[in-house]
Amino acid sequence: MVDHPVASSSGPARAEKAGVQRAGRTGDPGIVPAGEASFSQQLRMMWRALLGSPLRRCLILTSSGLLVLIVAMACGQVMLNRWNQPFYDAIERRDLPEFFHQLVVFAWIAGALLLINVAEGWLNRYLHIKLREGLVRDLLEQWMRPGRAAKLARSGEIGVNPDQRLHEDAWHLADLSADLGIGLAQSSVLLLSFIGVLWSISAGFSFHIHGTSVDIPGYMVWAALAYAGTASFISWLLGRPLIRLNADHYAREAELRAALVRASQNVEAISRSGSETAQRGRLVGTLEDVLAATRKIMTASIRLQWFTAGYGWVTVVAPIVIASPVYFAGDLSFGGLMMAAAAFTQVHSALRWFVDNIGSIADWRATLLRVASFRLALIRMDEK
User: Could you list the residue ranges that cross the membrane (predicted)?
Assistant: First the structure.
């Protein structure tokens, strides 16, 4: 995500500066308050950096290749899901020849999925590397433009520990962006692929209650949406505080590292003045701030884990329970029940992507805030 050329203020750089001015500012222009740039503004800023990057073509090709493999993987999983019905029906009929035939079919499907999985894994890691390279190159270029680094160092809190923003935060943001983006794409494609399977299984199903028929076309789809949607909403409520807590934790960690570096650089002066006790007190105080921030994250994470872990155990039996009315009504064979349960699991897994990744999303939002605020401050150095 590198803006070029350095010597010109046209193109992406001018657009960025215009976006900065629209964001407004309070106080010292070098200090970026946490809430000043909205989430959408932060994303637009990083997107503009990506569009101006010399790695743009590589990133687009890699992402496109990954998307093709994700779609191919989803097609293979749909084939594997359909394989469930004849396989389990053969078991129910005790049909040994058909049983062995279906094992051969499984071997072909599994072999194809294995090849796709390996290729997808390779492109996944390659995308991680290129995103890291682009983001770090962009931040280095912004930081090392004439006069910016010196002005940033005099701009208060935002200028403290630029090394962490340039290295750890940038790398962490690249990794999280790749992981979450690929995971979201996989879940979306799986959802589109398997909703049709679930709908066809329960399209004409009716509940019979005391002689009264209640038609709910595609009821397994609605059940999956309600089940995963409720879990996602509760997870969002429980995980939302982690965004702010993670951002605060990263800031406290950076302060501790900076304090340790300063103490190491001034060890002779500290020794001559006999101020070891005072220095130790300051370092311990900074350490306590880190530990306090860590404890807050631990408390919020455990609260979230109570729900996600319990929800995970319920999900072990939920697909069979939800599909069982169709089976006991005689509208499904045993193989059809297993196919329906597997399809429900796939739809549910896609829908619960948010539940599984709420902690990572909170971490990503916090890291994006730190990196985008740092980049915003660097751009503003030209206004000082």
Answer: 58-79, 99-123, 189-207, 219-239, 304-328, 334-355
> What confidence tens digit (pLDDT) does each residue in 98-152 have?
999 999 999 999 999 999 999 999 999 999 999 888 888 888 887 777 777 777 7
pTM for this entry: 0.65
Domains parsed from the chain with CATH numbers: 12-383 (1.20.1560.10)
How far apart are alpha carbons 242 and 362 in whole angstroms?
A: 6
